[in-house]
Design goal:
Blueprint: H1 15-23, H2 29-36, H3 38-43, E1 61-64, E2 81-86, E3 89-93
Antiparallel strand pairs: 1-2, 2-3
Helix pairs in contact: 1-2
Length: 96
């Protein structure tokens, strides 16, 4: 993943890059997601503490309505993001 600074991808629009990776580069959705999670943590030398969902790691995750492996653009729709967890704590809860 790149950065969310600047006018091209303003803050909160990072998920557009995932769709671009799928549509323009031909990546599978799971591989695009891994670029923003596991692969990014590995590149930073922090895979032992983040990047995958494992016991003892920093837990940041999204719960979305729909299947981003079928339609990666779901991750851009804030209305479909139901739960956001940061450091293992719920920060946003839109479940009804």
């Amino acid at each position: 993943m790149g950065t969310d600074c600047g006018p091209i991808l303003p803050p909160g629009r990072n998920a557009y890059e995932l769709e671009a990776n799928v549509r323009q580069l031909g990546m599978r959705p799971i591989d695009a997601i891994l670029t923003a999670t596991r692969n990014a943590a590995k590149a930073l030398g922090r895979l032992d503490e983040m990047g995958t969902l494992e016991k003892g790691k920093i837990a940041d995750l999204l719960v979305v309505e729909g299947d981003p492996l079928r339609d990666i653009s779901i991750l851009q729709d804030h209305g479909r993001i139901k739960v956001v967890m940061k450091d293992g704590r719920i920060e946003v809860d839109r479940r009804t």
